[in-house]
Amino acid sequence: MSTRNNNTFSFHGTRREWLRQAGALTASAALPWWAQNGYAQTSLNALPRLALIIGNTKYPEAPLKNPANDAKAIAGELQKSGFKVNLQLDAGRAQMAAAIAAFSAELAKGKGVGMFYYAGHGAQLAWRNYLIPVDAVIEKLEDMRTKTIELNSLLEGMTKAQNPMNIIMLDACRDNPFGTKVPTEQKGLSQFDAPPGSLLAYATSPGNTAGDGEGANGLYTENLLREIRVPDAKIEDVLKRVRLNVRRKSEGQQIPWESTSLEDDFYFLPPQHIRKLSETELDKVFNEELSLWEKIKESKEPAPLEDYLRKYPSGQFSELAQYRLDQVLKAKGEKAIQIEAAKDNPYTKGTGRIDTQYKIGESWSYREINLTGGNEVRQFTNTITEISETEVRFNGGQLVTDPFGNFIKRPPGWLYTDAQFYIQEYAVGKRWITRFKTVTPDRLNVDTEFEFKVVARESVTVPAGTFDAFRVEGHGTGKAAKGTATLRSFYWIAPGIKRPVASELTRRLGNGTVAANERLELVAYKQL
Fold this sequence. Notes:
- With 528 residues, the protein is of the alpha+beta class.
- The chain has three domains: 32-260, 3-Layer(aba) Sandwich (Rossmann fold); 279-347, no CATH class; 352-526, YmcC-like fold (Beta Barrel).
- The protein has twelve helices and 23 strands.
- The chain has helices at 14-21, 23-27, 33-36, 67-80, 93-110, 144-147, 151-160, 219-228, 235-249, 279-296, 302-311, 318-331; strands spanning 49-55, 83-89, 113-119, 122-125, 128-131, 149-150, 165-171, 198-202, 257-260, 351-353, 363-370, 375-387, 392-394, 399-401, 407-410, 414-416, 425-427, 431-439, 445-462, 465-480, 483-493, 502-509, 514-526.
- Helix 4 packs parallel to helix 8 (219-228), helix 5 (93-110) runs parallel beside helix 7 and helix 11 (302-311) packs antiparallel against helix 12 (318-331).
- It is globular.
């Protein structure tokens, strides 16, 4: 059975402590306007900002149209948002290597936020990613190791700088990087997990290529430029909007991808003041989002779902909305690209998607264990008896879930609004939120909210076997007329298994009493 160290459970741990201690750094730095006008000095967004931007266009064998334009445009926008920018155009290998070394050294000295942006040719070989200088003469694939810049060398330098946050954006997935004389093993770039405290963004999904664009900028950068100009937008929301816009414009043939290990919120254009909303204000915001979601969640047209996702890119129902949009676009004939399989890739824990192609008769049996006493409480089996577009019904309708396994109804009469406790796609570092309402069998109304994070991919052993699973950790609260409970959840989800392999939930009342402390383990399953 998998074990964990409860002392390490934190979404806002040592890095935030580092930031609290780093306020002195900002006093001697040239601060952007938000830091000069009351923005918290200890915030990540008040630290110095440094960017290295490279745009390579003039390749002898396979010239590109837009990388120089893209790089200059990104450099201009970053300067407006407080970055000190080093812009390199049509750089050879020596020039790129020197710029990267200087960039890493300055990050180590200033301890600010670093951003690296690259537009140009890139390629993968043996799971490693390479950025291609304009003077690289590639006669055979092995030349990439000595005549290009490996992404790992950049990441190692930025990691050694020990600055609090790094952003790496690669618009480097153009096709045909060497002309016709050297065929590559795989298209595009390889999947790679972001190092601690960083975000890694690709113009398209691993193993796929991105277009050079028909206008003055590439499709990815064109949308990135638009979204980073939006005030008060967190970087994850910026990139989610970019992904949506690029996907729709390309009709599913280019879908940007990110890997993140960020622990703090970063804004290109932060709000001048961050004010914590009152409970009344939070309720109002949630009810407005819930009302909109209820109106559009069964839409058979993409526009209402897109509008919701642009307004709430990290919303309470955004994972559900993205899944619904996928289904709508698939029904309309869109054949979207998929992430290349990461099997045997040593640089990533991979990505897992839940199989939602259910069949009547499939079943999952669990045992429930009381973690306080260690005794088995019961065993039960959930068998699919009915399937609709939006619901999976078990045991004659006693249990009803959405396609991800989130409760809609469960015995002996609990009712739920839509929740995204479980989601479709898992990758280490991914974070999301959910808030939902529950009516208990005795008509008690409960308002529950959670923050979740995928923290590891690990082996977990249960009676049904040993599984390679993603471990998800969450914490939240449940509020009812009788008081507020603190909630902590762990669950393990394995690609290929349509239901959780194991899960744990602890509910602690306001007076410290543990009202629930249970674990479910998969005992047996039948998938058709």
